[in-house]
Task: structure prediction
Amino acid sequence: MNIEPGRCGRLEQALRHRRDAGGKCLVPYLTGGLGDDWLQTVCAAAAAGADAIEVGVPFSDPVMDGITIQQANEKALAQGATPQRILSELRSVVTDIGVPVAVMTYANIAHHMGYERFASSLADAGVSGCILPDLPLEEVGEWAGCARSAEIETVLLASPTASEKRLQMVCERSRGFVYGVGLLGVTGVRSELSESATRTAARLKKLTDRPVLVGVGVGTPEQAAAVCEAADGAVVGSAIVARMLAGAGPEGVAELISEFRAALD
Amino acid sequence: MTELSEAIPVPSVPSGLMGEPSASGRFGDFGGVYVPETLIGPCQELDQAFRSAWGDPIFREELNSLLATYAGRPSPLSECLNLSKELGVRVLLKREDLNHTGSHKINNVLGQALLANRMGKTSLVAETGAGQHGVATATAAALFGMDCVVYMGSVDIARQELNVFRMRLLGAEVRSAESGSGTLKDAVNEAMRHWVSVSESSHYCLGSVMGPHPYPWMVREFQRVIGDEARHQSAELLDGGVPDVVVASVGGGSNAAGIFTGFVDTAAQLVGVEPAGGAAISRGVPGIVHGSRSYLLQDEWGQVQEAESISAGLDYPGVGPEHSHLAATGRAVYKQVTDSEVIEAFTLLARTEGIICALECAHALAWVSRARSELQGSTVLLNLSGRGDKDVAQMMGLLG
Ligand SMILES: Cc1ncc(COP(=O)(O)O)c(C=O)c1O
Result:
């Protein structure tokens, strides 16, 4: 089941590179279009040690997100964020930041533009991967076909309560990495890492050679380090977005990302 | 339902519509299971449980008995002599307003509560707009001894305080959905977010024919009792015939789906009526939200737009996927009415027939009233989905 590293996309290559060198992957999530300096924040996050950056394209009804990312979505939309604006701004920095970018949004944003057009506009913007959490295995086929044609890596989510067989299917069809969901719930910082986070990572690691990252409920450097005892890396969203919402600016966000980086190294 | 009505042959036009959805949970191009992986397990569990229960005569018997002895079914069919004279259209009302808790919502809720009980769930989660579905769910939870959490938009909490108090009286916890527009769509988001974390012990009791598979199908099946009864009742009244037109209001579309199932295989024209400010079928384009692909009001980027209607129960930017399919195939048509037409219809029914109806079903009557010249001499069956007690305070503010 080994995949030739040369044949996988930029996102997977970058994560494999970190992992195969014995490191742990850090993928911060930032809400696109949030504040005037979100693009500088993306650059600062890359410089602070992110292996890839997840950029959220805001959606009006983010059903998998908790209050922090909901508020960020609402605020960015009120500030006039659109998929087109976010992508065209991203295009201006994506080659300079040196790490791949994955876009995270909801199915309707892609569906409304048309899957083919959305996939090609991601590619035009230099984006490597895409996460659409409301496209489970049952619904992802049509999108995945369009994404493949545009050489966009579609990252699939794996649920803590999924059967072994379903996890296997997710691992086979996911590109870039396999996104283990840390707990049964929405995004948001919790006081403790759920026991299901490491358990899910360990189950996934047995099934795939692809990088396994865990996100949702990974909110502190300590929690990230803990989940990485089983996982190849962590996706950190709400903790970072909360900093953005608090007006910490690119430096404040970079500082937090450095703390996560230090905890994983 | 008498012996006689069973014997009367009714013209039947096989349509292949309103049966089971496809294996992928679709009605034509609409429906599906657009939920995060973490909700796939609960949706699959529910699909299996519903299939097994619906095929089990004991479950059906239990549900029928509850509907009869607790909800008060069958609901009567009323012929509106005064209104008919005024409009020049023969109007028959299917009286869902006379059910326990005052609307058709109880049909679905008793079905789901019985199913949840059979699945070993100990609590119910629901969303509500006008509060009717929330009250019905809180009622069923009390009856079955289950815990109940109801999400309601902050705007709706303010405009339907009586129903909020009812739910609390019934022992439910009402939680305010503050995000977005503070209406039904946001309450659905919150209910789904909550369900992810409690699905092992909780059943999500969705209130309309929307959401991911199996909800649109299951809720329609639980509401088909409206159509089945009305088919027999109208045959009895119409010498074995069917009405020319069957009309119902459409929010998510459950009362309409319920009555349409009884007539989809006849020559009756099926008409759904949406509020002009929430006309997903007439003004929307296909989109994906709340678990299914269906017509949806959205902006040029696919952001879901806020609906705006005088009636909280129809204040929803989407519509159940089966209605999108019925519209696409042309088997049903969907019309829009304005808030002022609705207020007029609401007062018309009160004045002519002595029935204060819910603002939702006043939409259906508003269309009949507007289309009366085309409908002259025909027979219209209207689903009177609920009673208007909940809306009286709001009307008092508007009409003085
Ligand atoms: C009386 C009544 N009718 C209709 C509706 C609309 O829902 P649906 O379209 O699912 O019947 C509601 C919703 O709250 C209602 O309370």
